[in-house]
């Protein structure tokens, strides 16, 4: 029975979105997880990138208990979160032409790696150029975005294209334009965004698929364990040592 209070309404909306991505994006999630597994098996490295609040879902799979040790955060100064002051600078940097090229030129990304790019709208210059330039390097790109933006907004990149147009695989978060699930007559603007919940779930579903796919192939997936369980630190030390040449967050 649906809850008529805002909290219940939001949770219902989030559950509905999660069900939609489970049912409608299953093949894409499987393909993305398989791509990650292929990359690990072939000696490649894994990277995730997101700007602003999209960075939350990227950070959620890096150095994470229960996650793949090989997932690295590709950082762009000023857009990793809302800690930059003023916070509006981060939004402005997403629209700067050439920033992605400068970041990739100084990053460890190389041919044979995989990069997950998270951008809700997929319309700004930074994620579009990041995908275009990464693929030019021979990097496989997975985009996590809301495809609805491509039909209801205009691109802010000179090409007129969106993130979804430059990916090997696209995961559609199904988030409506504006990223707000609730409206009330007494509240002047839509509110209660669900993009972080859904995008993080897609990221975890993808990495879970990668781990299981590696195991099916007889390869122990390089997983991290919680440091708060007995033996966790020792386990992680072994994994980090074994894969140290493909991990960049501990240097």
Automatic annotation (TrEMBL):
The protein's matches in Pfam families, at most eight in alphabetical order, are given as:
SIS_2
Taxonomically, which superkingdom? Bacteria
Output this protein's name: UPF0309 protein G3I46_36105
Can you cite a GO biological process for this protein? carbohydrate derivative metabolic process
Q: Where is the signal peptide?
A: none
Q: Which residues form a coiled coil?
A: none
GO MF assignments: carbohydrate derivative binding
Family the UniProt entry places it in: Belongs to the UPF0309 family.
HAMAP family per the record?
UPF0309 (MF_01240)
Q: Residue ranges of the SIS domain?
A: 36-220
């Amino acid at each position: 029975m649906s809850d008529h209070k805002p909290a219940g309404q939001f949770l219902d909306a989030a559950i509905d979105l999660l069900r939609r991505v489970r049912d409608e994006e299953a093949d894409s999630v499987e393909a993305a997880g398989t791509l990650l597994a292929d990359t690990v098996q072939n000696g490649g490295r894994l990277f995730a990138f997101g700007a602003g609040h999209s960075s939350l879902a990227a950070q959620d799979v890096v150095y994470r208990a229960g996650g793949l040790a090989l997932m690295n955060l590709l950082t762009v100064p000023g857009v990793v979160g809302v800690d930059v002051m003023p916070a509006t600078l981060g939004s402005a940097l997403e629209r700067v032409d050439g920033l992605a090229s400068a970041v990739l030129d100084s990053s460890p990304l190389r041919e044979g790696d995989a990069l997950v790019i998270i951008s809700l709208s997929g319309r700004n210059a930074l994620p579009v150029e990041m995908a275009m330039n990464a693929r030019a390097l021979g990097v496989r790109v997975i985009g996590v975005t809301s495809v609805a933006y491509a039909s209801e907004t205009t691109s802010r990149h000179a090409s007129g294209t969106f993130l979804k147009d430059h990916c090997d695989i696209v995961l559609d978060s199904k988030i409506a334009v504006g990223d707000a699930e609730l409206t009330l007559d007494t509240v002047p603007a839509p509110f209660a965004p669900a993009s972080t919940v859904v995008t993080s779930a897609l990221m975890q579903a993808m990495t879970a698929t990668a781990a299981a796919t590696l195991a099916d192939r007889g390869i122990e997936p390089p997983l991290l364990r919680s440091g708060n369980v007995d033996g966790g630190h020792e386990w992680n030390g072994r994994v980090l040592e074994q894969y140290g040449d493909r991990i960049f967050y501990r240097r």
